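Progress report, Aim 2. The chain analyzed during this reporting quarter is listed below.
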Amino acid sequence: MTCPLCSSNTPLHHTEVSGGPFGASVTLCETCLTQLTGLPDPNHWRGLAGAMWSEEPAVQVLAARMLLRLSKHDWARELTEQLYLDDETRAWADNVALVTNHRDSNGVPLAVGDTVILVKDLAVKGAGFTAKRGTSVRGISLVVGNDAHIEGRVAGQRIVILTEFVKKK
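Predicted structure tokens for the chain:
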């Protein structure tokens, strides 16, 4: 059997795919498993051009999530533009919070749309104001590829905030 993401012919390991139907899983090679949560090697993921067309929704979800992580590469952006997912699979794939390690200052996992509170006064570079301790930031976004950064709106400005300076409300 080959890995459904990279087509390598190595031993496969069973893994669940978070954020979707209960028990949704795939069998992947060790390299894919390691790189799904670690630093991805772009050359390893060239096989996503085929994997994204899999009939298995869990494989499509993992392909879409990895393409998003690799979006700084032209080839990955081009594949993402070609990718078609039905509405349910797209919602599952877009649940990026489940595949990131964004955590607040207390180690609590953060998700897209969460509300956080600033735990320190933060000078906002380029905006000319200080975001005060205790400020509530609603509807945060997670910065893909950098677990230490989130984005949110403070005083009408969209800013990047280090996760070490927030706590989940």
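Helices lie at 30-37, 48-51, 57-69, 74-82, 87-93. The chain has a mean pLDDT of 89. These observations will guide the mutagenesis work planned for the next reporting period.
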